[in-house]
From TrEMBL:
Superkingdom as given in the UniProt entry: Bacteria
Residues spanning the signal sequence: 1-21
Organism field: Mucilaginibacter terrigena
Domain Phosphoribosyltransferase: 138-229
Protein name per the record: ComF family protein
Amino acid sequence: MPLLRTYLADFVSLLFPQLCAACRASLVANEDILCTDCLYNLPFTNFHQQPDNIVARQFWGKLNIEAAYSLYYFNKGSKVQNMVHQFKYNGMHRIGNLLGNIAGQQLLQNSVFSTVDYIIPVPLHKKRLKTRGYNQSACFAEGLADKLNAAVEPDNLIRTVSTKTQTHKSRFARFQNMQEVFAVARPKDLEHKHVLLVDDIVTTGATLEACGIELLKVPGLKLSIATIAYAE
């Protein structure tokens, strides 16, 4: 029977091949979501080993953060962009869980992240959430939580205003677009806790900064940041 199941699986894969979310090559036995080559050779930043990495520097003088991190470098036309597109727009929410696991494994090597109490995803407005069906940042947060032994708080930070796309806006315009967009629903739950704020891509950091400003109004809250990718 196991041999028969293997033959059936191989036959189905010929008719309906599963493709790598990054390079779009056909997956083979024991591969899932990403092929082995992409799993190990996508452009890791290794920011967990660099306290003064470029993402952390984006927030110097703007947010009082403990640490900042991105898993991959993001460039237009790259495999990482392909993967993020599949994740955000083609319903492949499992990508977020996988990338959260990979990132969490790296962050275990940095003692700062070992003290995280709660992981909070950048929220989508309810209209966009209804359209997409899931919050990609929340999927990433769930994968991180598995490794960091922290709780996901998916609805404590809320988006009160639906904003237009940030694409092609300057950093200042992006930040202005994010003013008074977010609010903390239950600040008491976060008092004197270490919160890891997560998003998919960080470019100018304007969205994360706007979220961080609201979170840091909570007494005693410590803030760190993690994203799937940093757009160079």
